[in-house]
Amino acid sequence: QVQLVESGGGLVQPGESLKLSCAASGLAFSTYAMSWYRQVPGKERELVASITSIGGSINYAESVKGRFTISRDNARNTVYLQMNGLKPEDTAVYYCKANRRVPWENDRWGQGTQVTISS
């Protein structure tokens, strides 16, 4: 049974940092590209960052470039999102996703973790 469990969310003030973790089980983690998404009520889920299976290629949304860093530890089956310089507009539920490797496979999602930036 595939499980992706996010943690590390919370309430912080503008300018502060948070580090999200997503622990994976039930899948060959090192073979999956991983992504972080976020969603606010009434809006579509948006891609924040992605990393290939061995970390050779990383992409970020323009809105987080220079502030967020995605990384992974394949030995720990975990992907991370270090978020620095947080802004109120970063407030959202953050989800990790294991990206399908072939078209007939399903993407796998975690349950999400709330991040709130407020003074």
Describe the overall structure:
- The protein is mainly β.
- Helices cover 0% and strands 48% of the residues.
What structural category do the secondary elements indicate? mainly beta
Q: How many angstroms does the end-to-end distance come to? A: 40 Å
Report the average pLDDT across residues.
96
Ranges with pLDDT <50 over ≥5 residues?
A: none
Give a short summary of the structure.
By secondary structure, the chain is mostly beta strands.
Which key terms come to mind for this protein?
119 residues, single chain, 7-stranded mixed beta sheet, 0% helix, mainly beta, 4-stranded antiparallel beta sheet
What's the layout of helices and strands?
Elements: E1 3-7, E2 10-12, E3 18-25, E4 34-39, E5 46-51, E6 58-60, E7 68-73, E8 78-83, E9 92-98, E10 108-109, E11 113-117
Parallel strand pairs: 2-11
Antiparallel strand pairs: 1-3, 3-8, 4-5, 4-9, 5-6, 7-8, 9-10, 9-11
